[in-house]
Amino acid sequence: MRAVIAEMPRRWLAEHKASEAAQWDEVWNGVLHMPPMPNRLHQRFERDLLIHLQTHWGDPRGCQVDQQVNLTTPEDEGDWVHNYRIPDLVLLTPDRFHIDRGEYMAGAPLVVVEVRSPRDETDEKFPFYAGLGVPEVWVFDRDTKAPALHTLIGPTYQPVAADADGWHRSPATGIEFRPGGPGRLTVRIGGNDATATDLPRHAPTTG
């Protein structure tokens, strides 16, 4: 169910802010967006993907993979809480470390990652990411783990097609993805099969 409320009562805001779900709130140009808390499938996959990318891509290259960051624009930095999104993961190369302010990031990561859950607003975030100039957006289906990679061409994102073996290869990072077993994603780095693994690490369960 979707609802639009012109002005949230202060009591509702206070109750929501005190709840665990508030950590996923976003503000889009002054409008509060309150998505439901991600379920365990989402959280476990996101965690395992973060660990794998940091271990096999980030650490060897001196790069950074972060989770659930407040991402705003340089123009909004002075009052960033009025316009920010929260990607599931962001990938930064050293030339982009300067956007990290600790509490938030102001500017374009190399990659933003979204795990799409039912009725979320993944697609609606694309114009924000394009306006920032984020070179790539990766989207993974929460349930099937099917990958969809998008690269910024001009003002919009275009899909990255899979190769003959089913791998989607990130132009910016060399990281590759393809569907694994049921509810699993196979990941490898730069065509190196030694880095290939299926995620999540344990067989998917519901909930």
Explain the overall architecture.
- By secondary structure, this protein is α+β, with helices and mostly antiparallel strands.
- The chain has a single domain, classed as tt1808, chain A (Alpha-Beta Complex).
- 18% of the residues lie in helices and 29% in strands.
- It is built from 3 helices and 14 strands.
- Strands 3-5-7-8-9-10 form a 6-stranded mixed sheet.
- The two termini are 20 Å apart.
Sum this structure up briefly.
The chain has 207 residues and is an alpha+beta fold. It has helices spanning 10-17, 40-61, 126-132, and strands at residues 26-28, 31-33, 64-67, 71-72, 89-92, 105-106, 111-116, 136-141, 147-153, 156-159, 168-169, 175-179, 185-189, 192-199. The strands form four sheets. It has a six-stranded mixed β-sheet. A four-stranded antiparallel β-sheet has the order 11-12-13-14, covered by helices on one side.
Ordered list of secondary-structure elements with their pairings:
Layout: H1 10-17, E1 26-28, E2 31-33, H2 40-61, E3 64-67, E4 71-72, E5 89-92, E6 105-106, E7 111-116, H3 126-132, E8 136-141, E9 147-153, E10 156-159, E11 168-169, E12 175-179, E13 185-189, E14 192-199
Parallel strand pairs: 4-6, 7-8
Antiparallel strand pairs: 1-2, 3-5, 5-7, 8-9, 9-10, 11-12, 12-13, 13-14
